[in-house]
Amino acid sequence: xxxxxxxxxxxxxxxxxxxxxxxxxxxxxxxxxxxxxxxxxxxxxxxxxxxxxxxxxxxxxxxxxxxxxxxxxxxxxxxxxxxxxxxxxxxxxxxxxxxxxxxxxxxxxxxxxxxxxxxxxxxxxxxxxxxxxxxxxxxxxxxxxxxxxxxxxxxxxxxxxxxxxxxxxxxxxxxxxxxxxxxxxxxxxxxxxxxxxxxxxxxxxxxxxxxxxxxxxxxxxxxxxxxxxxxxxxxxxxxxxxxxxxxxxxxxxxxxxxxxxxxxxxxxxxxxxxxxxxxxxxxxxxxxxxxxxxxxxxxxxxxxxxxxxxxxxxxxxxxxxxxxxxxxxxxxxxxxxxxxxxxxxxxxxxxx
Length: 352
Fold this sequence. Notes:
- About 35% of the residues lie in helices and about 25% in strands.
- It is an alpha/beta fold.
- Helix 5 (about 110-125) packs antiparallel against helix 11 (about 325-345).
């Protein structure tokens, strides 16, 4: 006689709050929290009357709170922080001290020392903490990592990556920390994921009228010998290819400007509304593997930002690791600190 296996236990959704309902909170966090069955999106900390009104229209039933303490007292177990960059470390530490698991948007901190203090606090308190490096799940980056894992490109020697756009908005405001900290947080994180630790850093930038940086170039020499060339700009009229990645047996080139998940969220689509079509890229945005003049089209894997919050929720329930190790944010901040010194002094900065 056969015995049916016991049904798998259903995980209780994690009661999740959000701090901030500006562009990032409204488009990059709230829709993904609301779409994740593993999360109960229950509150937003914002004092702005305008943003409270938007929240009531876009997420009926989600409560607005005036502070992290109010959010915690209402039963939140975890929080995502999507506020100006100069508030990230104080809010992360406050949330941890309140006993909340924390996801913090990029830049995780304004420097490596602040990043390290938050990580050590989370470790001491035994609370999950993760930087929101959603770009690890971009469609083009997932495709690149798959090609590397399959040995299609051989041993990587150079990683060229761009976040470039021409935008009437001049980029992050002073409280956002500049283009190096904004776009650079993702560019450097992807380079570290792909090629490992960095031995030296060289950087250039153009100053904006408000004193912050734009049109950034960063060159990394990795401990293994490979090099990363990274560009970030909000004022580039001729954006270059998103990726050109060279290995010993081939190169991968993707000329698309950016992964399409951002545009989908801004347009009002979510993983819940698109289902299996979420993250899919049309054929005209696919990249090619080149071995000389001719290139072979490689279908782009679907983007998967939708996996971040379910993975973090499972970590809160003790069912796996956080999606991004917070120590990775310290490594990224260390490289960005070196890039700032290099761009300021015009010199190569060597890391231990």
